[in-house]
């Protein structure tokens, strides 16, 4: 595995682990199912034209909400989630020890709840790991 591929995978493990409670194995299984791991072995893959956070943003949005959003609202929410997971220079956000992951998790939850409120439904959403 190349250094770039390892960086992508480690970013996914870090962010999905802290925000969704996934183990490394679960992240690798997701990356296999979504064919991202196979793509990472190709240094010319289009996967590398986006930052790693882009590829996990949809995964952090509950499926029930995704199906209720119109396509443009879903794409906008994915972009907002991806931005939330990124520092201003596009690198993966790694919260400081002082702030921890709680603030990022709260911001993510708020984004999801705001999007859900626009769908005018009472269906409960999956919560993120505390």
Structural description of this entry:
This protein is mainly α. Helices cover about 60% and strands about 0% of the residues. The mean pLDDT is about 90.
Give Rg in angstroms: 15 Å
End-to-end distance = 32 Å
Give, in order, the helices and strands: HHHHHHH
Number of helices: 7
* Stretches with pLDDT under 50, minimum 5 residues: none
Which features does this protein show?
130 residues; mainly alpha
Q: How would you summarize what this structure contains?
A:
The chain is an all-alpha fold and 130 residues long. The chain has helices spanning 3-20, 24-33, 36-40, 52-57, 63-68, 71-84, 102-118.
How are the SSEs ordered, and which strands pair?
Layout: H1 3-20, H2 24-33, H3 36-40, H4 52-57, H5 63-68, H6 71-84, H7 102-118
